[in-house]
Write a structure and sequence with these properties.
The protein is mostly helical and 360 residues long. It contains 17 helices and 3 strands. The chain has 3 domains: 62 residues, 434 Repressor (Amino-terminal Domain); 220 residues, no CATH class; 58 residues, no CATH class. A hairpin with a 2-residue loop joins strand 2 and strand 3.
């Protein structure tokens, strides 16, 4: 039976209004409204037209209801600068991620979440508590996505072409999810991941709105990626450091130069004059690129899962068909990974995956 909620989801995922979808599909907005409200059953030709415009298989519209993230339940970093269409598109991606995650976990044992509730702690203290809880001390983190995955966080990519959609996170059925926009620089992506981790442990029972909540998550992220103790031990007080000196130093923590300068300034290790000078230099350098940039981080879980499936003769296209999707929507959620077969099992104990993530 045709499922109207899936029509709404498909339309939101592609950022289409009823007017635009109707025009492209040769249907009136009233007819689409009737379809979505279950007042009218679409004909086979109408379903084919809708499927063609939304780029979903016709079978997609006949599946069961899909859980969708709600605006109130997620931590959008840039909610004030996002359009309703951008917000709905990102949330619809989350719904497809829930489906993909559930499908994967029917066959693969992923790590259980190990995230304490740190709501009652200051953000910088919470960051150190979590590092100790995960037994990583104050060492630099080699790969944030691998670390989060090893501790039970489901990490997906947002292949949105709108930079206003930074990232978001939420708890869904007692599982933590993080969504990262791959349009950002790799360094920005690492900070986004740490920022969203802050929301997960600081705001588990509801995401507060406003600048204070975002400031708390940002302080947590900076403290988690650049612990005060290790920064003070490795960085002397710099009177007038050069742009090149700071670029070399920030590479130790694999963060952006802007984030590094902000951290140094907040810890009293960089003067106001030097701090302002960094951003003057960055504006000349170009904020869309990063001095001494790093490679983009991707998922180890998806590489192992889809590599194992390929070894068993199941391709991404097969997985997409089982989810009533096309591969473009799978690729958009798994960092566009090119999958090669793997011989070893992807079923790993959480502690073993955590150890591997920390080594990387």
């Amino acid at each position: 039976m045709f499922n109207p909620s899936r029509l709404v989801l498909a339309r939101k995922r592609r950022g289409l209004t009823k007017v635009v979808l109707g025009k492209r599909a040769g249907l009136t907005p009233k007819a689409l409204g009737d379809f979505e409200a279950s007042r009218l059953e679409p004909s086979a030709d109408a379903i084919e037209a809708i499927a063609s415009v939304t780029r979903f298989p016709p079978t997609f519209f006949f599946g069961p209801d899909i859980d969708e993230p709600t605006e109130d339940g997620v931590s959008f970093r840039s909610l004030s600068t996002m359009t309703a269409a951008q917000r709905n598109t990102a949330l619809a991606a989350g719904a497809l991620a829930f489906e993909l995650s559930s499908w994967i976990e029917q066959s693969f044992e992923l790590p259980s979440p190990r995230l304490p509730n740190l709501r009652d702690f200051p953000p910088d203290k919470a960051a150190i508590i979590l590092r100790n809880h995960w037994s990583i001390g104050e060492r630099p983190i080699g790969n944030m996505i691998h670390l989060l995955e090893s501790e039970g966080i489901r990490v997906f990519s947002l292949a949105e072409r709108a930079k206003q959609v930074d990232a978001y996170s939420l708890w869904h059925r007692n599982l933590p999810f993080v969504f990262l926009n791959t349009m950002k620089t790799p360094e920005h992506g690492r900070m986004d991941a740490a920022h969203e981790l802050g929301h997960l442990v600081l705001h588990r029972h509801g995401v507060p709105r406003g600048r204070d909540a975002e400031k708390d998550a940002q302080l947590f992220g900076a403290s988690f990626l650049m612990p005060e103790g290790s920064v003070r031990a490795a960085v002397p007080r710099l009177i007038a450091p050069s742009f090149q000196q700071l670029a070399q130093l920030k590479s130790h923590w694999r963060v952006s130069l802007a984030a590094f300068a902000h951290r140094l300034h907040s810890l009293g290790l960089l003067s106001e004059w030097s701090y302002r000078g960094v951003f003057i230099q960055l504006s000349k350098y170009g904020r869309s690129r990063e001095p001494l940039g790093i490679e983009r981080e991707t998922s180890q879980v998806f590489a192992k899962v889809f590599g194992s499936l390929k070894t068993s003769g199941i391709t991404k296209a097969d997985a997409a068909r089982r989810l009533d999707l096309y591969t473009e929507d799978i690729d958009a959620l798994i960092f566009g990974l090119s999958i090669t077969p793997v011989a070893e099992s992807t079923r790993s104990r959480p502690n073993a995956q955590a150890a591997e993530a920390r080594r990387n």
